[in-house]
Specification:
Distance between the termini: 59 Å
Radius of gyration: 19 Å
Strand content: 25-35%
Number of strands: 13
CATH topology of the largest domain: Uridine Diphospho-n-acetylenolpyruvylglucosamine Reductase, domain 3
Strand order of the largest sheet: 4-5-10-6-7
Bound molecules: flavin-adenine dinucleotide
Number of helices: 12
Length: 296
């Protein structure tokens, strides 16, 4: 059985304390949240921090709350808590769709939303979901906080704009009345990472698409998004023809690679098919949301 190399351990008791520890131990320190990505990577010796700064017990970063027209999710919120939160499901069914198919209940009990995003695995489901929703990431460091759009957060595989000494502290998602969203994923088996996945968020004006967000995971989409496909939808009738065209464009711009989860051409097919399925369900949910808003 693989074991990690020797490592020092520091348990942070507040965000301030965590930042002080990160400053004290410098570049050889690494943040530990739920540990479900970091510990396996340490076991494989893919990363070898000298000090782990454990933020996993910071309850001050573990919340879901609606402030005005924004859903705010603390970075230490566990997958299971996001899945159980009615305000998340009500405003953003895409988040519940995605959480239902992320790993298994044990991983979801420990894995955190912030850890998922900071891990920046190209197959991470939440990265695609938050890209579709055009969320904002709040990063806290010694000089205060800064806000970064979800589509600028990931700079490459396993890389984000979170600098050494900083923490991702919050994810903010704008609530759009009458919008609909959905997530579709194909994995090799239940609880597995996606072979391909797509998320969609749609706002309708009558039956015309007024706004569209498309997120993709595991198919080599830059920044987990499909902006060309989104643009093709704006102003179109929310019918099968427009959705099929968007799926085709999303697939054309995806850059999947062949790996143990599947061949590149199959993943490209999934990029198209899952985009269409996610859009279809997002449109249906937007129509239902519009109806219930009209009925008061
Ligand atoms: C068996 C298994 C199956 C899985 N299946 C899926 C799946 O189907 N889909 C999917 O999307 N994911 C899947 N995952 C991944 C899982 O969702 C993530 O590993 C997990 O949520 C990462 O969160 P964590 O809190 O455990 O992060 P950690 O492992 O603690 O940290 C991950 C990385 O992020 C950094 N980090 C963590 N929190 C912060 C922060 N607040 N600020 C700055 N840096 C931070 C750490 O330093 C580390 O580099 C699976 C994992 C396992 C073990």
């Amino acid at each position: 059985m693989q074991v990690p190399a020797y490592v020092e351990y520091e348990r942070a008791t507040s965000v301030e304390h965590a930042l002080a520890l990160l400053a004290r131990f410098g570049p050889r320190a690494q943040v530990l949240a739920g540990g479900h990505s970091l510990i396996p990577m340490m076991k494989l010796r893919l990363v070898q921090p000298e000090t782990l700064v454990d933020v996993g017990h910071l309850t001050e970063l573990r919340y879901l709350t609606v402030t005005g027209s924004v859903l705010r999710i603390g970075a230490l919120t566990r997958h299971a808590e996001l899945l159980a939160a009615p305000e998340a499901g009500r405003h953003f069914p895409i988040l519940h769709d995605a959480e239902r198919v992320i790993a298994d209940p044990i991983v979801r009990q420990w894995g955190t939303v912030g850890g998922s995003l900071c891990q920046a695995d190209p197959s991470e489901d939440l990265s695609a979901a938050f890209a579709a929703l055009n969320a904002t990431m709040v990063i806290t460091g010694p000089d205060g906080t800064r806000a970064v759009p979800a589509r600028q957060f990931h700079t490459g595989p396993y890389e984000t704009v979170v600098a050494q000494g900083e923490l991702l502290t919050e994810i903010q998602v704008p609530i759009t009345p009458g919008a609909g969203s959905a997530y579709e994923k194909v994995g090799r088996r239940v609880g597995d990472w996606p072979v391909g996945a797509a998320g969609a968020a749609i706002r309708l004006d009558g039956d015309v698409i007024a706004a569209a967000g498309i997120g993709l995971a595991a198919v080599g989409a830059e920044h987990f998004a499909a902006p060309e496909a989104e643009r093709s939808l704006i102003g179109a009738q929310a019918g099968e023809q427009a959705l099929a065209r968007a799926g085709q464009i999303a697939a054309e711009h995806a850059r999947p690679v062949t790996d143990q989860r599947g061949p590149a051409d199959y993943k490209r097919h999934l990029a198209s098919e899952l985009t269409v399925r996610a859009l279809r369900r997002a449109v249906a949910r937007a129509r239902a949301a519009g109806r219930s808003a009209r009925e008061g």
